[in-house]
Amino acid sequence: MRIGNLRGRAHLLRDRAAIDIAKASGGRFGPEPADLFARWPEFAAWAATARFDVAEPYRPEDLGAPVPRPRQVFAVGLNYAEHAAETGLRAGGVPSVFTKFADSLTGPHGRIVLSGPSVDWEVELVVVMAREARNVTEADAWDYVAGLTVGQDFSDRDVQMSGAPPQFSLGKSFPGFGPLGPAVVTLDELTTPLRLRCWVNDELVQDGHTGQMILPVGALIERISAVCTLHPGDLIFTGTPAGVGMGRTPPRYLTPGDVVRTRIDGIGEMRHVFVEEA
Q1: pTM of the prediction?
Q2: Domain identity same for 99 and 185
Q3: How many domains does the chain have?
Q4: Average pLDDT over residues 111-123
């Protein structure tokens, strides 16, 4: 199952066809994408019977963030060893957790305003929670997951690294710095490990897979839920593989006109153009 946000309404997606969930369910489920996760078992059972003969074509450019207003957004830094090494920071067995504020979230296509001269890219797998989770074990963690989506943790490195210690969340939360999409994909449609790639102006800059994670998804859910209660629709950005701009010699950052494509095989692709502030 693939859940998308088409012009602000929740849809089931298949190829280039979409079903409006509220209309197809006769109002049993509303149009708000986030509401589906609060009723996930009931919704998933209904979606398995949905008829795609009533689906209508759509344009990928009309998709918004599939989870536009999550209650909480967690993000994990330094969860790939080669990425930690390229940044000169130490990775360990304890996850480095911060937040991307929800106002940074945007859809899988569009224009993003540069916040300054040091904006960097980070392709990430994003987990979408289906159930309230508190003190969940790694062995049981996947039972609490609705699906997975593609994310970018765009980062203003000057802001992120200002102060002592660095303040990760502000540098990663400018408008548009948290793209999601094109859909939330349920686990039955995916085969792991998942390949993550990012291109800048058609140059491949990141190419990794989820098997390289230091702490896998289940372990992240266990660690976070031991402290914070996770709620349906909450997001977890799970870290990025090597290849970011700050890890290059000299560092390389995004400039006006740059096009960033972000892809996770089996889930889909996003495309964003960076522009100067008007």
Answers
A1: 0.96
A2: yes
A3: 2
A4: 98
How many CB atoms are closer than 10 A to CB 65? Answer: 23
Q: Is the same domain home to 13 and 145? A: no
- 147-206 per-position pLDDT tens digit: 999 999 999 999 999 987 778 899 999 999 999 999 999 999 999 999 999 999 999 999
Looking up residue 183, the CATH number of its domain turns out to be: 3.90.850.10
- List all residues 6 or more positions away from 218 whose beta carbon is below 8 Å from its beta carbon: 138, 139, 141, 142
User: What single letter denotes the amino acid at residue 48?
Assistant: A
SS3 120: strand
Q: Are the beta carbons of 274 and 255 closer than 8 angstroms?
A: yes
Task: Could you list the beta-strand ranges (E) of the chain.
Answer: 2-6, 9-14, 17-20, 56-57, 63-64, 73-77, 96-99, 105-106, 109-113, 119-120, 123-129, 145-152, 155-156, 178-185, 195-200, 203-209, 235-237, 259-264, 268-275
If we measure between CA atoms, which residue out of 220, 219, 222 comes closest to residue 97?
Answer: 220
Closest CA to 81 of 72, 70, 89, 69: 89
Amino acid at 249: T
- Sign for the pseudo-dihedral over CA of 218, 174, 260, 57: positive
Number of H helices, E strands in the chain: 7, 19
Q: Are residues 33 and 146 in the same domain?
A: no
**Minimal CA–CA distance to 266: which of 180, 196, 198?**
196
In a domain, 188, yes or no: yes
CB atoms within 10 A of CB 15: 9
> Residue 88: is its pLDDT beyond 80?
no
Q: Which of 112, 247, 255 is nearest to 179 (CA)?
A: 112
Contact 226, 74 (CB under 8 A): no
